[in-house]
Design brief:
Blueprint (H helix, E strand, L loop, with lengths): L5 E9 L2 E9 L9 E9 L2 H8 L15 E9 L9 E5 L14 E4 L5 E2 L6 H23 L9 E3 L5 H12 L4 E5 L5 H7 L1 E6 L15 E6 L3 H9 L1 E9 L13 H6 L2 E4 L7 H14 L2 H6 L1 E5 L3 H9 L6 E5 L2
Helix pairs in contact: 1-9, 2-3, 2-7
């Protein structure tokens, strides 16, 4: 198949009922943009699982091709920043929500959304990192910018066996941090320690209502859960510490008092990966090229044909997916 006919996963809604089907479309069916990318690889994130299953109103334009990440080669370009044959990647920018995403053999996007693939990574490795790993790096950069260093004490990572958590642990441990990993999957203890976690705790320690101010345990944290988990993480963060919040796996609420902020001077740093400016994206990907052990990346990655995306969507929502998934789209 070529530009006139290629496969795309299309999510449609009719009379309130969502349907997900592989369809044959052509270049003319793609949405506006100034760079056409031949997609080689994509991945699956929590948001992709929500979109495909319809468990949350992620999609805001119908019909929609899901997939918030893609990597591939420039086919045509009207943007002077990119030339035919360039290897590129996209994370976020509304892909899979308001603009056709990465679960298709071709994607047409806006040039400013793209960044050049770092030469240290293949397109497959870039998608093993994906939004999850890029978000983890943004969170680590936030901790660093607020003065969190290995000398300050342990750093907590929640949702440790997931995509963000796995890559965060691998990078933090390489940077010299003592990492505490929180997970609801005790069977992943050895997996997390192989990534670099010094200690593994049960997420039940953090997931129930707790004290407004509890014993200080960590100098910083990366949280993917929100709700009571984030509240407890904040209440147990050391004086002057920072918590980077980048997810809502437990919930969007945050039942907490101001005590940790005004009595311990801690910082809650919000991490947005979807609309982050290109400069931040380049900084994050440049640091990953330096600080992410590709051997550990390979160890946390499982590769699947793109046809299995609909089978894996409910698995990622149920917390049954370890590490990262890569789909070969081409």
């Amino acid at each position: 198949m070529g530009l006139d006919q290629f496969k795309a996963l299309m999510i449609s809604k009719d009379d309130g009922e969502q349907s997900v089907n592989w369809e044959t479309i052509g270049e003319a069916d793609l949405m506006p943009g100034d760079v056409l990318v031949r997609v080689s690889h994509s991945t699956m994130n929590y948001k992709d699982g929500l979109a495909i299953t319809g468990k949350a109103p992620v999609i805001r334009r119908w019909p929609m091709i899901p997939g918030i990440d893609l990597a591939g080669v420039v086919e045509t370009s009207q943007d002077s920043e990119f030339s035919v044959g360039d290897k590129v990647l996209v994370n976020g920018w509304g892909l899979g929500e308001t603009h056709f995403g990465g679960y298709a053999e071709y994607a047409r996007v806006q040039g400013p959304w793209l960044i050049h693939l770092p030469r240290e990574f293949t397109t497959s490795q870039a998608m093993a990192i994906g939004t999850a790993g890029y978000t983890a790096m943004l969170a680590i950069l936030a901790l660093e910018s607020h003065g969190v260093t290995p000398q300050n004490g342990p750093v907590l990572v929640t949702g440790a066996a997931g995509g963000v958590g796995s890559i965060a642990i691998a990078i933090l441990s390489r940077l010299g941090f003592e990492v505490t990993a929180s997970t609801g999957r005790p069977e992943e203890d050895s997996y997390l320690k192989d990534l670099g976690a010094a200690t593994v705790i049960d997420r039940a320690e953090l997931s129930e209502p707790g004290k407004a101010l509890a014993k200080e345990r960590w100098a910083g944290a990366i949280d993917v859960a929100g709700s009571h988990t984030l509240a407890n993480v904040l209440s147990q963060t050391k004086y002057g510490g920072t918590v980077a919040a980048c997810g809502l796996a437990q919930g969007m609420d945050l039942p907490i008092s101001v005590a940790p902020f005004i009595l311990r001077g801690i910082t809650l740093a919000g991490i947005d990966s979807v609309m982050a400016p290109r400069s931040k994206r380049v900084d994050a990907w440049t640091r990953m090229a330096l600080d992410l052990d590709t051997g550990k990346l390979e160890a946390i990655t499982t590769r699947y044909p793109i046809e299995q995306v609909t089978t894996l969507a409910p698995e990622i929502l149920a917390g049954k997916v370890r590490g990262r998934i890569v789909f070969d789209v081409s």
